[in-house]
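ok trying again, last paste got cut off:
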Amino acid sequence: MLGYPGAIGADLLMQILGLGSIMLIMPVAVWGWRMLTHRTFDREALRLGCWILCTVIAAGFASCWPHGGAWPLPTGLAAWSATRWCVRLLSCSARLVLSIASCSA
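nice, full thing came through this time. structure:
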């Protein structure tokens, strides 16, 4: 629909975010529906922050899906980074809980 610039933008989004780039489109569609039904917007800053956060979370979630060598879609660099960061955070949290539990026992 946007021609050559739209194809370049879509390719870059798929390389950076992978399947999580779909989350960039969904809020715009919802906001368009709200505008068509004449509903007001409130908490714009919170909505924008949640939009960005949920895009990265969706990219990380999509990168966790099992895929083989014939997987046609990229998982994206940001998706890979978000997944690795979450795994590290969870493993550090688990170590902290285990060390606290072992000290109190």
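cool. Residues 77-104 form the longest helix (28 residues). The chain is about 70% helix and 0% strand.
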